[in-house]
Amino acid sequence: MLLKNKNIVKLVLLLASSLTVMSGATIAPSLPKMSEVFANTPHADFLSKLVLTLPALMIALVSPLVGIMIDKFGRLQLLFISLIIYALGGTTGLYFSDLYSILAGRALLGVAVAGVMTSATTLIADYLEGEERNRFMGIQGAFMAFGGMVFVGSGGALADLNWRFPFALYFFSLVVLPLAYTYLVEPVKTTDKNIGQINSGPAVYPKFLIGFIYIITFLSMLLFYMIPVQLPFLLKSLNIEKSSLVGLAIVVSTMMGAVTSASYQQLKKRLSYMQIYAIAFGLLGIGFSLVSLAQGYVIILVGMVFSGLGMGLLMPNPSLWLMSLAPAKIRGRLIGGLTMAVFIGQFFAPVISEPIALRWSLSTAFGAGGLLMLTLAVGFVLSNRNLMSRDKKWKQQLKKDGVVS
């Protein structure tokens, strides 16, 4: 697709993508203080963690519908509306004085993020292809990680002043809105007749591979999101309560993620999607294992280095693999499913980890997560040949039918 001001278009898409990162982790440093402020509210600790993860549940519920809507009605209108709702829902912590009202605002934020993330990711697939798409997705991962550093670092500093102040950062969507309105263009709808002829119906796609991507994405986010959800409380148990230090630990992770995301294109030239998964989960497993053994702040930071390096590879890998498999006419729907997998994993992070933490400890929860990820890394190595063979056969079929992925 030919675009005017292509570099500016890419920048706008990067800015929109950064909103998905800041939707949760920005307020992570505020969680311990928030639980203290609302201590008289029943289950305040758990509800404070839901302030972080409730948007993820709403995103998971809404994303499939969003994907269908953007395939039917187009990408941009939904994106514009979502950017406005993002600011309205995200800033409620600034002015609402009870925990349940803040949770309602976070639910609204989740609806907005579903629209922003699914629209932006689908636009990337619409605008770019081939090596340019691979390169851009690596840049996107690095940019999102860098944005995470800025937003989480700012959130930590602001939380030291007042737990409410990090919520003001959600006004950033209103900076993105005029840029998106000015520079993004609605893609021309595809009418490729071959897409519906690969087998027998109009929505043919490799169900096993797509399902595999969804499941692994869910698991990766379920495990990784323990960092913003539980790390502040683990640090508190180690008598490290300063919000800026909590923010710094998360910033270290996102900074390392930027390094590997920026290197993704070069790695992808040499490695398969499954091999990249194996490396990513191996690094994450090492990081979580170190966190589980830590008795001080330095080892926590080392664990964040390994975890960030792994997550930096997981950010572009599932999106690119899915884009290469998804027929254009149902691309929004399948990307909506991926968005659902990402955020339902985030939502269940405290739901799964909290009982382990209460029964044993937060260190045990991180240790169990690390062991699971190391086991999965070995599984990816062993199943690489089989899964990549399926991938190759599907793409040969696409090429045979004249459909360019």
Automatic annotation (TrEMBL):
It is found in: Cell membrane. One of its GO terms (cellular component) is plasma membrane. One of its GO terms (molecular function) is transmembrane transporter activity. Residues 9-387 form the Major facilitator superfamily (MFS) profile domain. Keywords: Cell membrane, Membrane, Transmembrane, Transmembrane helix. InterPro entries: MFS, MFS_dom, MFS_Efflux_Transporters, MFS_trans_sf. Pfam families: MFS_1. The chain crosses the membrane at residues 46-66, 78-97, 103-125, 137-159, 165-184, 204-225, 245-264, 271-291, 297-314, 334-352, 364-383. It is a multi-pass membrane protein. PANTHER family: CHLORAMPHENICOL EFFLUX PUMP RV0191 (PTHR43124:SF3), PURINE EFFLUX PUMP PBUE (PTHR43124). This is MFS permease (Drug). It comes from Microscilla marina ATCC 23134.
